[in-house]
Amino acid sequence: MIPLARRAGYKRAMTARTTIAHTVTARGTALHSGVDVAMTLKPAQAGVGIRFHRTDLGAEIPARYDLVSETRLGTVLGQGVAKVGVVEHLMAACAGLEIDDLLVELDGPEPPILDGDALSYLSLLESAGRAEHGVRRQAIRVLKPVTVEAGGVRASLLPADALSYSYELSYPQIGEQVYAFAFSRAGFKAEIAPARTFGFLSELEGLHKMDLARGASLANTLALDATGGVVNRERQRFADEFVRHKILDAIGDMALAGAPLLARFEGVKSGHTTNNALLRALFADPANYRFQDL
Predict the structure, then answer these.
(1) The pTM is what?
(2) In this structure, is residue 99 part of a structural domain?
(3) Catalytic residue numbers?
(4) What does the pLDDT average to over 272-293?
């Protein structure tokens, strides 16, 4: 039997770019600044990509890896004097629902942290519905292994026919956790999106002195004490939630490539800094990748 894809005259059904069908809004506290922020998600035209609009500044910032200006405790996009921080959870939700074009309006410096996961953003996007454009979706196929490494921290993108993630986490307070995830929309919603961000109580005072983590609370962040115990264990959803959240962060950071990847991501103790360096290394050499229709 001749495979369907090889039959004379056969054309594979187009995978179309998508946006949301309706405008939706949310309001909440920003993780680091601690201020109240209103967020509006709006449909966008095909090819626009994901864009953040600071309505309080009258500035718009495309969600692109080359516009990442800070990676200390979250991924920050910057263009001119305008910045938008902690974009990775919302970007992960967009990638998880395979939303290509979206306008994100904010009247403050970050999206509201909501539940500290990607599921709260995913639910908001799902409530808006998905709408297809009449434009073919493209992916970025990784052709050669690309790795960035420093001081025992490593992140790689490896050639693969489908997107997948693996991560090895190691903290003295937590120990080691390993997780592998083959991307699917259903799998993202069930396995990765619910994983909350986490932090250590011992670092909180120092973060406050730097005007960071002002909006962190026991409702939106898994808090660990000096022994690695989870203070608000009733908020914990998975025994290995920490490594799952690291994959969530990586999905959000890789979404800044501007198109879905056909690759295998492997991370070892990596974070936002390494993730962004990995995308910069990927696009530094055109021989590393090519665009292809889906």
Answers:
(1) 0.94
(2) yes
(3) 272
(4) 98
